[in-house]
Amino acid sequence: MRTARLTKIAMVIFLSMIFFLGVQKPVLAAGKNTTVKIPVEQIFEVNNSADADKTGSYVLIADQIQNPMPEGSNRRTFTWNMSGNSSTELIMNVGQAGEYHYKLYQATENKENYTYDSKTYDVTIEGFFDSNNELMAVTVVKNENGDKVSKVSFKNSYTGQTGKNQNPVPSSPRSKDIIHNGSTVKTGDDSPVAGYLFLFFGSVVCLCGLLMEKQKNRKEDAKNEA
Fold first, then answer.
1. Region Disordered: start and end of each range (predicted)?
2. Does residue 185 lie within any of the structural domains?
């Protein structure tokens, strides 16, 4: 009687585990990457001087080495130049779900009669799977005040009359450019692993109990026959 009861319990647990695994929809890697574009604008104001150097240097730096980066990056750093009033797009391919963080700022060397925009932008890219298991991405750009902005914009200016005497001015290290590693990248996989383990170990316990009960019954039957 007791053996039959344990057998039923074990069967119920096994069937529950099979059903539980069957209804789960695994999070799989998408067949192709999703593309992210970050617009960057440079505005350069000059005081009627054709000799002004209107070139600005910019840096995008990731807080993790595995973050998606634009083509031509050096590990987790991407640098590029912009000239005059111009705009560009930083293009990155996101290949898996996760949350990725970046800093974007200007690194132009200071020169006399020039004023360079010193803002630093925080960029967050979140990759996720939609209801059709397609990889999607959302980009959020915030300025130094924590406000969301639609694009990154830097405004530089030149106040001199000629291009002469444009001697570089040493710039002090910017503490806000320091990136601290250690933030965890989300994987996007929310599978209930604990449920699997609970059902598995429950099945093992019931099976062990069933085998022990059968062995005990065999010993008792052998003793009775003797």
1. 156-184
2. no
**Residue-range definition of the domain harbouring residue 61:** 34-177
How far, in Å, CA of 32 to CA of 123, rounded? 23
Identify whether residues 69 and 105 lie together within a single domain: yes
Dmax (CA) of the chain: 117
Instruction: Tell me the pairing of strands 98-106 and 120-129.
Output: antiparallel
φ, ψ of residue 96 in degrees (nearest 5): -155, 160
Residue 149 lies in a domain: yes
Q: Is residue 75 part of a domain?
A: yes
User: Which segments of 70-192 does DSSP mark as H helices, in order?
Assistant: none
Report residue 168's pLDDT band, with 50, 70 and 90 as the boundaries. Answer: low
Q: Which residues of 124-146 are buried (b: 16+ CB within 10 A; e: fewer)?
A: ebbbbbeeeeebebebebeeeee
Q: What Rg do the C-alpha atoms of the chain give, in angstroms?
A: 31
> Does 38 reside within a domain?
yes
Q: What whole-number distance in Å separates Cα of residue 125 and Cα of residue 139?
A: 5
Provide the CB-side half-sphere exposure for 169 (13 A, CA): 10
| Tens-place pLDDT, residues 33-81 | 899 999 999 999 987 777 899 999 999 999 999 999 999 999 999 999 9
Q: Are residues 170 and 60 in the same domain?
A: yes
